Every structure is written in C-alpha cells, then in structure tokens.
C-alpha cells in the first residue's frame, strides 16, 4: 500500500536535469481522456463523419522523408466497424509492458494474440528473483480476461527465434500490426557474463530478424511497432533528435540516422535491431515504427486493476527493476535509495500507462497506413530527470507518508557518464495528436 | 594467363566517379618498398637509432579522442629483436585475405597462428562453387610454408562461436595482436534467404563478441585489428569521414560515430560489430582498429606466388566474386561484363597486396600500443571508381591483349543507389606514414 501511495504522491513537474529549451519538456499523454472520453470529445480539431463515430487527429509532423497527411477514422469504431476487428500481435505479451498493452488493446476492441516463450519467468527462477506483485500463469490470465470481458486473447507459446513456430503464428493469426516487446530487456542482465551478453544479442537480433522475415513472407501489410530504447543514443554533447539528424558537412547536407552510442550489450542489441529494421523498410517496403522508449515505471493500468489475476508484474531487483520502481520499494521498506555514483545520469521516464500510447501508434498505423518502406522513429518518454532528482522526488513523496527516506551513493556498476549534457526531443507524438497532460494525478 | 595479364594491364589513374576535393584521391600503399627496401630507406622523415634498425613514422593524425605520438621502433627488428617475436593470431586465416596476410606476417618474422573453422570451403560445396585457382588443404599449405621457409604457422581449426575452443586458442597462443577476418563476408550470400541472413548475423556478431571477451579474459593487451567494410557507411549525400564526424547542432558540437546505412545483412553485421567493439573499448579498455576495407581485387602476393601449394583462392562467381575480379574473368572467357543496373554505384577498391597494409597497422599497434580504450577507424582503400569505370578499365586492358570485351547491364539484384554522390576520406593511414604510390605496375 505504501509503495502505491508513493507512486501516487510523487509530483512530477518540469525540472529537467539540464538547461532545457524554452518549450515545455514535461507532458503526458492524455491517457485518462483516451480511456474515458467519448470519441467526439476527444479529438476536436475538426470533425468529418465517416462512420458512426469519427474524429480527426491533427498530424502536422513530417516523418522521415514523408509528408504526414491528416488522419481520419474512428477510435473504437476502427475496431468495431462492419469490417472485421483489426488484429494485433503482441510479441512478449506476458511481460511488464506487453501484458498491459495486450489487455488494453483487447479492451479497445482489437483482436489480440500474445506470442511469448515465457522465458522472462525463467530468468526469475535462474536468478532467484520474483515479481513483488503475485502474478498468475499466462493461461490463467487470459482465462480471467475472457471470463470478465468475454474477449478472447489468443495465445501462442513459443520462441520467435524458432522461425517454424513464428511462421505458424503469423499464418494462423494474420496480424494487421505487431507490437514487439519480445526481447531480453535488462542492461544489467546482458552484462552479467559472456553467456548472457551473447544470449541477449542473439535472442534480440535474431528474434527481430525473424519477425521481419515473417512480415515479409506472410503479412506484407503488417505494421511493425518495435520497442527500441532511448539508451541507443547514449549521451552525446548535442541535442538528441528523433531518430534522424540533418547534418551539413563540407557544404553538403543530408538527413541521416542519428549516431548511436549504446552503453550495454542489451542497448547495443536495440541499436542492431534499429539498423536491421531500417534496412528492411528500404529493401522490402516494410512499414515500421521504432519507439525509443524511456524508462518505464508504475504499477497498474485500468485493465490490470480489474482483477488480481490480471495483475501485472512489478520488479524491484537490481537486474530487472527500473530506477523509479526500485526507489519506491526501497523507500517503502526503509532501505536507503541506492544512487549509482554521482547520480547525475539523466533518465527519461514514462509511466506504464503511457506505454499504452502504442495504442495510438497502432491506430495511426492501421487507420493511416504508413507508406511501404516508411521507417518512423519516435522518442517515447514523458519527462527527464537525473537519478538524483528521482531520488529527491521519492524522498518528498515518502515524507508525505511519514517515511524518513535516506539516500546513499553506491559504486556505479555501469559504464556510463554520471554527469552529462542531455536534451532529447520527444515531440513527434504530440505533433501527431497526443495531447500533453501533466503527470501528477495519473500515477498508479 | 589472360586474366593475370588483364589485372596487370589495368592502368588505374585518378578519375573518381564524382567530383572530388582538390587533394588526390588516388594513392597506393608503397607496398613494393615495404617489401624490398631496407628499413633505413623506407621511413626517412627522421632517424633515431633505438635498436639495430630503426625508423620514425610520421604520425600526425589524431585518432578519435587521442593525440597520436610519433612512433619509434623497427620494422623486422620488432619481430627479430632479442625479445620474443610478436605473436599475431589471424582469424579466418584460410580465406582470401586471411591466407595472404598470415603468410606475409610470418615472412616478416611474426609468430603466426591461423584460427579458422574452414566453413568458407563448405559454402563452396553447398553452392556448387569453387576457386578458379586450385588451392590445397590448409594443412598442406602450412606444411609447404614450413618446408620452404622453416617458419611455423600454428593451426587452430574450430569455430570462434565456440567459446571453449576460442579460449583454448587464446590461452595456448597468447597473441599480441589479432587480425579478425573470420566472418561470412559476402553480401549476396547473406541475402539468399532468411536462414543465411540469420546465419551471417549470428556468426559474425557472436564471433566478434567472443573474440572481444577472449581478449578481455586472456590477453588484455592484445590489439584487435578488425576487418570492417566501407559498405557500413552506405551512400550519404555528404562526405564520408573515417569512422567519426564532428557535428555542430543547435549551437553545440560533438564528434560522434559516423551514421551507418548498410545495404545487406552482411554489411549490417559489420555495423553491429563496429558498435560492439566501440563499446568494449570504452567499457573494458580494449584496444582496437576497425579497418573499413574497400572491395579487394587481385590474385597474387609475393608469398602466395612462392609455390603452387601456397596459391590463394580466387573467386569469380556471383556470390563471392568481387567486382573487378569478376570482370577480369568475364573478359578472359569472352563473357560480357555484367554491370548491375545503371552501373553508377561507386566501388572503393584495394589490391590484395594492399590489404597487407594491416601489417603496418599491426606494427603500429605493437610498437606504439594504442591507449587502453582507443578505438581507431581507418577507411582502407586505394581508389574509388564507379562500376561503369571499372568495366571500361577492364575493357581497355582487354583490348591490349586483343580481346573484344563487351559490357551489358543486367537487372540489379541489390537494393542500392545506382547513381549517387560519393566522396570518402581515406587519409589517416597516409598520415600515419604509409607512402602513397600509384597502382600501375604493382598489380598481380
């Protein structure tokens, strides 16, 4: 209970670690509205009635090499129109982000399939870890969802590095979109030893290659939403753009992929994925969105809160626990917050609910399909703070609950700059119609 | 015989495909001098007698983040001094570049070990291909070398993706430097099907990861010379720098890795390698040189010409044959030269003998060790021509031999720009002391 209150009470305002440009760097997806509002209230810039319910999302940002055209369509109607519901394959759908995403998409009327080999649960067994929140089996999870909502989530249990298995899943389900969370996603895990470094890069890179080949061979129109990471960029001494940067050099100009400087074998695997995906967009006409996601925090979404059997996992250990989640647990149990080194490292954060922005991206992809070969990159985070600032916020929230939260600096196990310039853009999603909204009040 | 004469007769002069900067873009390593001259004639900028023979190599170029200090040392003496000869592990030493390199290093007094799983020969069996020049087994090759020169080349036959095997090789041999050619190096091979795309990326990326871990665990001072490829850069509309580019963006400046845009799963695997290596330099203090090599052509080196059993392989097929080699064979047999598409694609080329410039780099690495964590990148090619220009050169050379060489355009099986701006720098090796020398007269 304490930890849930800690997350609720953290009041995040715009106080980035470094001098920011004049535009606000603090915003949140208007997620409450996305969930609760009737579509006609939601996107109100202009209306054109196409189907029973419809709206227009202002979409003025140009994606790389493309001119974005205004999106027309409907929200739930896109899933419940007279045509069949759109199908979304959630790869890694048993995990922290994937499970929340799968439920939310199903709740919004999409036909959902989860593809997962459940290896995330094996890591826990191997390392002697466990979720803080009890979670049931994936089979019980989808059964409970069906019992509560009448909605079916299909389940394909297997390894996407096994192309025979993945082929069968694609041929059977025929996805319109695929959201790919199915990777070993812990930097510390990838750095434990050679075996896990190699496993991480093999699993992640080959898994993504297989997904690309499956799309090419079985579902050419399928839009891939791939989870990348802000960590691909490293900590350059210049502003971080969204995926691409325009460079003028020796009198000539080009817009090129933003240089990558990853700081773990896990982050490197995401860099490799991004390069592979960009190539297949060009070579095969694959449509893909690379979401360079910030560090996810938070405990519940509306769907996972519906029943204890739908509960999401919550990790707080040193391998899988993300910074803010870990600090909240440490504060709740009276353990000093463990700040690595000087604590000046900048963290871009995003609440679990806002991870569900990928719903927006999927709608965008389905209602306004990307042109073949279009490779979009979004930096998906809501705010950026230094680790020290996160610690202070948790300390302040803890104080409101009567907790005396301490902080201590521990030797940094990572190879990273502990104080650095950091200014990353993350405006494309807003420009495509997501409405900024302050974080406070939306936590938990 | 015709083909050998074709390569000899091609007269390459500075006529790049695109408008070049005023500095000469055509130079060759002064390789004849490196082989024939006494050291005292070779590097004549200044002399300081350190050992029996010594020289100073002018080294004014700064590598990324480092200030290069003048090199003092000796050439053969570095290998024949009173201390033990330096050890170089040639990974992929049974292949086109690797075999020539292994012999040359051995001839120059280094203690050499070849590490190879011989899978290159298996590709031939699988695809029904073969070397144009008969080659004997690796065991016969090293036996013949021993018989002729008295020099031993150690042989470790196994897969570098097998870390147990690689560990034993490192622990047994204790290399001072490792030259890593041991990858699946054909773009067309990597694009045949999913299985070979996956194989290429797994083999190349995991193999290199294992080499990095082996250096870290067993030979911390070992300098890695890694064969990259110019193809990592793609065809940007700006000048291509050597590994890094200084960008000024929104009022701030940083020198960052040059953006990569590879055009095959093979080229992508090299991009992944470069990112992985750069990270380990920073994280572990690995010393590495990434050689972004151009397209290799040519048939013989002085060592491979010593005996038929030392003969190097020569590939002219569509999978492993490189452009200029293929054109020479096509001309010799009366087959039209097969130009892909419009033929405007720019090719950076390097004669096989000049691949042996890595000897220079190894000497540089051993005599003037890179600082821990130093990641050097060189663009290693001698000239750049469009495919059309290569075809014209071969046609002209053929005419001198009385051959009526035709050219035809065939549909381009590759996804690549067929006409594009291209201006790549390749000056760092010259600035470090390699003396430019025209190519004509050195071929074959």
Automatic annotation (TrEMBL), chains A, B:
Transmembrane segments: none annotated. Residues 88-351 form the NAD-dependent epimerase/dehydratase domain. InterPro entries: Epimerase_deHydtase, NAD(P)-bd_dom_sf. Belongs to the NAD(P)-dependent epimerase/dehydratase family. This is NAD-dependent epimerase/dehydratase domain-containing protein. It comes from Eleusine coracana subsp. coracana.
